[in-house]
Amino acid sequence: MDSDEAGLPLTPKLIGGLYTEAMLLADEARSYFDSAGREERDALDPFARVGFSCESLKVTTRLMHVIAWLLTQRAVESGELSRAQAAAPSRRLGEGPESDDALLPRLPEAARALIEASRDLFARIQRLDEHGAAPEPAPSPARSLLSRLERSF
To answer: Domain total for the chain?
Structure first.
């Protein structure tokens, strides 16, 4: 996905691709920060070690906000939520914590790569959230038929 995503309608394919990307990144971050990252963190000076831990929490927070937003978009696609419900402040993309740019050069390369990837994904989702959603999806034919049948009886 590239910077042109903000101009695209929120299609199931786009949401699905972003969701897959977010889940893969979340799994990669969890794996790194729980194993190899611990060894790299322990090799840092005390100040950088604390910063490393803070940055790992920021990565997790950004990714969880992204995943929650994408799940909301999936709920709209499936008809569980309306666009108006999805636009409620509680369902919008949460605040993404800012990383400490002065600290980043002191962190291991793998940590910096995960931080940057989470920042990039968050920024792309933020642009989609700010530009609003596509029009209300067409109701499914099955739901339409059920609705008509309910009104008839």
So the answer is: 1
